[in-house]
Amino acid sequence: MMAAKVMPETEEQSRIRFQVELEFVQCLANPNYIHFLAQRGYLKEQTFVNYLRYLQYWREPEYARYLKYPMCLHFLELLQHEAFRRECVSAQVCKFMDDQAILLWQHYTRRRTRTLQPPDTPAPPAPPAAQQGPPRQQS
């Protein structure tokens, strides 16, 4: 039997692999996509589970800085556990994850807005009071 030669990855191939893996990891921020994968049996396949384990490198700061949806890292971590992968088939679990993600984003957005506002910023001035009819003429 002849052993296959492994060709080194070109710079272009490396760039494309980076983009594809970045896009896939960010898709994991969507509980509906995880549910889709579970329904089709991907989360039961050992090769796919191995791929999810390989993608853990995105947790490193040098790669994580490219992520637009950091919640994907939380779901990537959860997908390392077989019990979680089994539960993802359930539509109720998917709905719960989706609801919780939305609540987190809402809370995070409000909290971030308050955090970024300097504490000694004065309140914006009140709008001028509306006049009650035309001004009276004084005699």
Automatic annotation (TrEMBL):
Residues 129-139 have a biased composition (Low complexity). The keyword Transcription applies. Pfam families: Med31. Component of the Mediator complex, a coactivator involved in the regulated transcription of nearly all RNA polymerase II-dependent genes. Mediator functions as a bridge to convey information from gene-specific regulatory proteins to the basal RNA polymerase II transcription machinery. Mediator is recruited to promoters by direct interactions with regulatory proteins and serves as a scaffold for the assembly of a functional preinitiation complex with RNA polymerase II and the general transcription factors. Component of the Mediator complex. Residues 119-128 have a biased composition (Pro residues). Belongs to the Mediator complex subunit 31 family. Keywords: Activator, Nucleus, Transcription, Transcription regulation. Residues 114-139 are annotated as: Disordered. GO terms for molecular function: transcription coregulator activity. It comes from the Eukaryota. It is found in: Nucleus. GO terms for cellular component: mediator complex. The keyword Transcription applies. This is Mediator of RNA polymerase II transcription subunit 31. InterPro entries: Mediator_Med31 (IPR008831). GO terms for biological process: regulation of DNA-templated transcription.
